[in-house]
Queue: 3 jobs
Job 1
Amino acid sequence: MEGKEEDVRLGANKYSERQPIGTAAQIQDEGKDYKEPPPAPLFEPGELTSWSFYRAGIAEFVATFLFLYITVLTVMGVVKSNTKCSTVGIQGIAWAFGGMIFALVYCTAGISGGHINPAVTFGLFLARKLSLVRAIFYIVMQCLGAICGAGVVKGFMGHTQYGLLNGGANFVAPGYTKGDGLGAEIVGTFVLVYTVFSATDAKRSARDSHVPILAPLPIGFAVFLVHLATIPITGTGINPARSLGAAIIFNKDRGWDDHWIFWVGPFIGAALAALYHQVVIRAIPFQSK
């Protein structure tokens, strides 16, 4: 017992609860166990001659391809079924989207950052986490991957059946207005991109180092929850590449009528999340223990 009491005493002294606040926290750099990465330049010529740049783009392409393949096939299975009991239902669709994001972010985070979503790339670009050239390259590769993924699904399902099942395309459901759909996409993407910023924040990693958190887990869980909420409204986009890939392969008026919503909404949501992160979260002084 004496040894345990000594451990407690030493621990209490080592991890003092008293922390500097305000400007005192900002000027005390000693003991800070995290490092803020410098803002990414708008244009970095060296990127275009680096293999890691193209390797990251390939990773985004493959990840988005796999994402569309699994998720759109899941949607097809649910829509095709005559009874809810014989399919995974809306909850299964949400798990497919969230689970794939978890797995793919985990696999590609060390290569490209694991964006797999133009809205995420756009938000991180606004926060100066990557250059304009890399952001554009990522978005192009994500869209190409999404088109290929949806195309493979159509090859499996067949042209006629794929068309009858709406191709997994996003559109505003009957009973909701375009404003409803736009609002759902804005808020849903805000939740996702805000989670991305929070899960990958250097300050948070240092502060919560005693609680190991795998960043892809909260990101995937955020995607799952947003899908549960907004599948009945828009089928849940929050990812312009996912919406574009399905719309191009489906290629019918229903897939294009509301398509602008699935670009404007996610980009507004991502911009708001980036602004909130920079103005509110990053402005809070922090001195790790």
Job 2
Amino acid sequence: MPDLWQDAMDHAVTVARKSGEIVRDALQNDLMIMCKSSSVDLVTKTDQNVEQLIITSVKEKFPGHSFIGEESVAAGEPCVLTENPTWIVDPVDGTTNFVHGYPFVAISIGFAVNKTLEFGVVYSCIEDKMYTARKGKGAFCNGQPLQVSDQKDINQSIIATEFGSNRDAEIVDKIFSSMRKILCLPVHGIRGVGSAAINMCLVASGCVEAYYEIGIHCWDIAAAAVIVSEAGGVLMDVEGGSMDLMSRRVLAANNNIIGERIIKEIEAFSAVRDDAPVDPSIK
């Protein structure tokens, strides 16, 4: 029986590598930087070029498939996950890192069918690390199997998180309060590389016990969610329960013990869902 989605996954790996070449080349040239929602929510011409490369190549090979892409949504395309085979793409995860030459930048390509994630490809292109996972077939980095940490003691753990791009004082206070509570459990440390996809891959790799964030988007986490799950980790909402891909909230942990302990310390808040209807009166 033919493998329905292996060809798609192989294509995702190929186009991720090509995209990585574009990113590395752009780092050697002038960067065209623009702002989206605020002065800290950045987009570059490279983001747009990479997304166009991915979408064009996929449409040629799989013309019936759908897309959710960060830059396409920013340009007004709807962010709706249907039962149709759907590519969920972040062309440059870690744009702020990219702009500053901070060496953690990823191309993230997730793939869902019937609203279920089937595979994920995260290419940390400056490090040249290709993270891949297929549902039911394990997770890998450059072909080597990944396995989450077996640590069950929160006091012996490293936790990853990010500050996000929201600079509203009330939100920032909640973010710092959560970090303070977690740090004072105590944990070994709090880290963050500036890319949701890479942070989650570090959980899958076993060097970080958990990662949480509120305010990310589905394209930041779709691919890495498969990688975490296939490496033996768990995915949940920051207030417990299952992860909702469109909720803009995620907690990825090596096991339920660590995840549920962190949830107790997080001052949760809600973000506007990725699939929320767009008000046509807002330009």
Job 3
Amino acid sequence: MWRRVPCLLCVFLVKLKRPIIVALIMFRRKNQSHSEQEGEDKQHKVKELRASLGQLSGRSAQYCTDACLKRYLEARNWNVDKSKKMLEETLKWRSSFKPEEIRWHEVATEGETGKVYKANFHDRYGRTVLILRPGMQNTSALDNQMKHLVYLIENAIFNLPEGQEQMAWLIDFTGWSITNNVPVKSARETINILQNHYPERLAVAFLYSPPRIFEAFWKIVKYFMDPKTAQKVKFVYPKNKDSVELMKSYFDMDNLATEFGGTATLNYDHEEFSRQMAQDDVKAAKFWGLDKHAPGVNGYSAAEVAPESKSIALPATARV
């Protein structure tokens, strides 16, 4: 009799668990079904947006991939009409600004101090990383500064690994002061270009150890930002434990420069970086179908790929 008790108990437990298991299966199926339906709805929105744009040609057609349309829809909470307006504004801007035609030799002077450049490592999610050092500002012409920034944004996107659509920004405030700070007009134009013409391209922006006086400047700048963009901006302080852990969650500390709490050395080499950009210019020209007419870049013709560059800012062991 006593030997039968455990067996009876097992049967009871199995019967007790059965409704729970069934409920879990039903819940999983319901979520899966909901996810599939949501995916179908979004795909329908993409088709609807594409149809609303009408017949596209040339670079506009090349630019408006399904992935591109999804980013604009995401930026406007999947509202087709608002997404269309936003995308049409971008196509108009690209037609005028011609970001795909900018070549490094046109903006190289802006980059001499390394105030903005692409790091030779990715974050833990495989994103391209742009390093910005506002304290290294070396020019005063806003148009050229924006042209330089747009060139590097395009380059960062061009160098994204397959399956990754976003980049990360690391902003180093070393040398930044109220006397050499970025003018509000420049900051406003940067925000306008980034959030209106490159929606969902920025994953996160780290403002590393900004001085207290920057807080007043930030309050003005934040006014021009979309709430979704503002949420991607993270203030990071080296002596704050949560900030340190946040950086570790995004970056390999062996890749990250000491200016950002890592162990590597930040040493921008303008000549080496220029050689890398010359290589990328050739590839970008080919991608956009401009290679037959691409001008010489830093001594290299469109048909001649520059020699492989060495490490730009961090040790050769850094992940590229």
